[in-house]
User: Fold these one by one.
Assistant:
Number 1:
Amino acid sequence: MTIRLDGNQTANALMNTLQGQVAALKTAGVVPGLAVILVGDDPASAIYVRNKRRRAAAIGVASTVYTLPATATQAELLAQVAALNADPSVDGILVQLPLPPQIDAAAVIVAIAPDKDVDGFHPVNVGRLWTNTPGIVASTPYGIMALLHAYGIHVAGLHAVIVGRSNIVGRPLAGLLLNHDATVTIAHRQTAGLAALTRTADLLVVATGQANLITADMVKPGAVVVDVGMNRDAAGKLTGDVDYAAVAPKTRAITPVPGGVGPMTIAALMMQTVALAERRANG
Ligand SMILES: NC(=O)C1=CN([C@@H]2O[C@H](COP(=O)(O)OP(=O)(O)OC[C@H]3O[C@@H](n4cnc5c(N)ncnc54)[C@H](OP(=O)(O)O)[C@@H]3O)[C@@H](O)[C@H]2O)C=CC1
Ligand SMILES: Nc1nc(=O)c2c([nH]1)NC[C@@H]1CN(c3ccc(C(=O)N[C@@H](CCC(=O)O)C(=O)O)cc3)C=[N+]21
Ligand SMILES: [Mg+2]
């Protein structure tokens, strides 16, 4: 029997716990504050921003979205980041990626105060991750770890293959899995023999943005499969990077899209925002 790793249900349970933590903070006079900067109109970012607002409102996190036009300049964006760094009511700052081509994303990320970098993208937090010291961790990888944990799936000793090496998913997930004693391989477009490699995975995580990249012949029977991809099919329906119908029966456990990693990303973001507010409340 295949286990469906239900991100909606798991995220809801985590949000209930967070709601209580936020209520306790409020009696201590602290409202967790999340600032989101959105430049232009990337479709995956639009879904993320909409769902984040809803989830934040439901638990009492004050979230503000600063929308800048796709033509915004680097200087405008840096000025916005500086204002939020200086604002004591803001616990977490998140700049939606990707940014338009005229903006140097790395320069914007280093401008965020590392202890407000709720996405964990600042080099200081990336360094903490790769030295296995406490810090803020990227939400999607953190959400994936929380989902596996909720279902009692232990990664120690597993061969984890991650397809995709982005700074927001593949690389930070590799660090977290390594910190939890998995053996980790990262694949990308230049990887030779992708299918032979993915067939060696006990845990296969796919984050490419290529619909149906992973077919049934590429998956080891009994593997755990995590699908991060968000694609629109011809009918406008959201689909992942895995051919779910064909792959799911072969697996021990698999995430659906939607309802898998997406809601867990938001839950992870809220957990870290609340943790930062708790740090502020405790001085
Ligand atoms: N559910 C969620 O919470 C989230 C979902 N997403 C979704 O996940 C997907 C990935 O996002 P992101 O990491 O930002 O994407 P990027 O586009 O930044 O990175 C994609 C990665 O996939 C690799 N790749 C692409 N095609 C292939 C292929 N045919 N074979 C092997 N590797 C391939 C690329 O390789 P190379 O480096 O060689 O180019 C690259 O490393 C997207 O669909 C995005 O919308 C993203 C973040 C959160
Ligand atoms: N700085 C930054 N950090 C990110 O973490 C980041 C980003 N930029 N840019 C865009 C991508 C994409 N991303 C998503 C998160 C949740 C859903 C999500 O809620 N998904 C629901 C969608 C349901 C629906 O509303 O249709 C689901 O999968 O069930 C989607 C996409 C985070 N990203
Ligand atoms: Mg999902």
Number 2:
Amino acid sequence: MEQRTVAFIGAGNMARSIIAGLLESGYPAQKLIAVDRSPEVSAKHRETYGIIANEDAVASAKQADVVVLAVKPQDMETLLQNMEGVDWSSKLVISIAAGISSARLSEMAGSQLKLVRVMPNTPSLVSEGMSGLYAPDFVSDVDKLFAGQLMKAVGEICWVSEESGINAVIAAAGSAPAYFFLFMEAMQAEAERQGFDKETARLLVQQSALGAAKMVVANPDIELATLREQVTSKGGTTAEALNVFNNKQLTETVSEAMQAAVRRAEEMESLF
Ligand SMILES: NC(=O)C1=CN([C@@H]2O[C@H](COP(=O)(O)OP(=O)(O)OC[C@H]3O[C@@H](n4cnc5c(N)ncnc54)[C@H](O)[C@@H]3O)[C@@H](O)[C@H]2O)C=CC1
Ligand SMILES: O=C(O)[C@@H]1CCC=N1
């Protein structure tokens, strides 16, 4: 993979996850720059990852070949307005922000950005990320290849052909780790109520989640429903538990939750 200099502007949770995953994959530390308006955050990047880190978005963007916009959506306009001194024409820009379209980002920057929108998720931190990518037609194949390789270094990727697909990626992957964490939190709490200490309750849940996920990955030809059925003995305990989920309409609840995430991303497009 090409080793361009990549500056992350906004070095919070998501940027940190990608940076850590990139370093783990062997991306050279001297090619990564973290910029954060908080000196404490940039100092942490220097100390923890040994990468270049500072508070100067303009100077860092000028130095970089690729600029990853990784601030919260509500901070994006101010950031890009303050970066008006940057000549964007020679740079690939990657935005990981939810709910801001590529056209709107160019408008905020005051110039047509060569932009790839990426929707990653935090498991990038442990090189198990899932990212969806979208690029407008005018972005070159070389830039698209680089963006894809960058995210592939921290997990799996999929391209979407329409920009609206990014909102569907948010619902199915960007936000998804939080759904699984919530489910595991609920299971850990109940295991504690049933008498396990906190540590053992967490171990029971996390190992079961990890094992289930690994079985899914290891058996691409087996439907998820079949894997579920293999656990579910007729008249047994699993069937009783699944009955409760079904009676409480888990499937419909999951659909509603994912639709709410898409709706919120669409609403954000009109806010920022
Ligand atoms: N956290 C997640 O799981 C995911 C987040 N995203 C997107 O990533 C972006 C960042 O989210 P998080 O990392 O969770 O937020 P965060 O709040 O952890 O990090 C944002 C960082 O940007 C810094 N910042 C804000 N304005 C700045 C400026 N003008 N110059 C330099 N630094 C500035 C803040 O100090 C903060 O450290 C958002 O747009 C979000 O939609 C996308 C996918 C997943
Ligand atoms: O909650 C959010 O808006 C961001 C986007 C996906 C995950 N976190």
Number 3:
Amino acid sequence: MTGKFISFEGPDGAGKTSVIKAIVDRLADVKLANQVVLTREPGGTPIGEAIRDLLLSSKSVDMDGWTEAYLFAASRRQHVVEKIKPALKSNQIVICDRFVDSSVAYQGQGRQLGFDQIWELNQAAVGDCLPDLTFVLDLPIEEGLQRIAQHRTDQINRLDEETLTFYQRVRQGFLKQAQRDPQRIVVVNASQELTAVVKNVWHQMAERWPELKNEDA
Ligand SMILES: Nc1ncnc2c1ncn2[C@@H]1O[C@H](COP(=O)(O)OP(=O)(O)OP(=O)(O)O)[C@@H](O)[C@H]1O
Ligand SMILES: Cc1cn([C@H]2C[C@H](O)[C@@H](COP(=O)(O)O)O2)c(=O)[nH]c1=O
């Protein structure tokens, strides 16, 4: 199978991590486990993870919105150059937990820095390296936040403490981005049971890449 770049997006608690785990298992079932590169943003590289710590730390309360936007883009640039592009070049399947659409939704729409302005800033960071396929896991904000509150095992981060209206703008940002780029972005109803969400995502992947239905690698 040739290199593929797939990103998973959505508001906090939409189920990205859970769905990605199940999709990686499915890829293993079709004998593609050794081709999978699982990664995340912010982060994905040592430099990116250091930027992640700075971005998500509750000590960064005074961070300016544009500083935040540039730091997400800087983490992304390093990620693209150091990990994503080389992996695609060697025919790996890159599965990324959040990518450029998160910046457009959170910084562009959530922080109201401007949808197009944040897209342009990120164009400089990613160049021509956009996902082949992006899943936006969509659900009412309250549901995602409730899921997190019920099951939280990791620490609360700085962005977890935003208001409901911030997250509602973020959700609209993802949906607007999907409307703008329907070839790349598929919106999935993430309110369904996890098995149904995974089935839907896998179906979309196999539609696009029929070799996934019967991979004999
Ligand atoms: N479809 C679902 N139905 C009910 N609960 C779910 C579903 N998907 C995930 N969950 C649960 O919701 C919580 C958040 O899921 P998960 O960590 O996968 O979301 P996430 O999108 O990665 O969150 P974050 O953006 O905060 O990292 C977990 O406890 C998970 O078990
Ligand atoms: C890539 C990216 C992320 N964010 C936000 C979204 C989340 O609140 C955190 C990351 O935490 P997660 O548990 O890994 O989902 O960062 C953002 O605001 N902008 C971005 O570009």
Number 4:
Amino acid sequence: MITLRGFGKDYGDFCAVESIDLQIDAGEVFGFIGPNGAGKSTTIRFLATLLRATRGSGTVAGCDVMGDPVGVRQAVGYMPDNFGVYDGMRVWEFLDFFAVAYRIGRTERKQIIDNVLELLDLTHKRSDFVNGLSRGMKQRLCLAKTLVHDPPVLILDEPASGLDPRARVEVKALLKELRKMGKTILISSHILTELADCCTSIGIIERGQLLMHGPIDSVYRQIRRNRLVEIQFVSGEEAGMSILRSTDTLRSLEVLPGTSDTKRVVAEMETDDEGLAVLMETLIAAGVRMKSFNDRDPTLEDVFMTVTKGLVS
Ligand SMILES: Nc1ncnc2c1ncn2[C@@H]1O[C@H](COP(=O)(O)OP(=O)(O)OP(=O)(O)O)[C@@H](O)[C@H]1O
């Protein structure tokens, strides 16, 4: 549904995106993850036909982004990261405005507006002024406007930014609903936990380079080469830390906040089950007492940290 072939963008002398190759299949919810300034919005704005590529090309729903921008706009519902609303406009008028822009007929428009208001749980706000809505409501309204022309592809730039926890949960639930409706969704975020449980695939971008992408399970499997072991020391933590530091398979060591009588650390080890068993034996033989030695499943945050440290390619 979405492809990029060698897409790159320079702003003057500054290279914001180097060269991205990407394919997102129909029905995927693709999480585009990266820190501020990584190049997410630049890539998204290109796919939404709002920005010209310096290099490369892309397609959305089979339409060439640069060759057939009108075809792309018909296929895409785009939600920018900073969206404005118009003063003195009511909720239904805002949606009607976009429906007219998509040349949807008057009778059809009314039904469509009713449907998207209901889907986004905004029916009770139908006649409210847009600029009087809370941030969460405005965000939801903006999502509603991406749906008026029933596009197969949604491109959402940080749709949950600035929302309170409840509103974030609502956005996630909506994404799941939209996925069930068969939409292909590209959603960007720099908040990893936000995307962890609603994406089917992810891409990690940093400084204009797509470091890794693929189905979320396979991304987790790839970083599984590096094991993350959470250890809670009861006593002997100094000896424990020095054993960990001198283990040649240690890749990183992070001290977590613990209680006064325990010290918690996460050791990232490039090892297998045998290596972990030997480490545990060594710690015990040195008199280190532990409350737990837990080989934990990676989180999306772990994936991100591992990939951006260049430990996985
Ligand atoms: N119009 C522009 N002119 C010059 N530089 C730009 C322009 N737009 C973006 N940049 C720069 O390009 C880089 C990528 O920006 P982009 O907005 O794509 O990042 P992002 O990953 O979306 O970050 P954020 O999460 O902060 O929106 C940044 O260094 C940014 O300052």
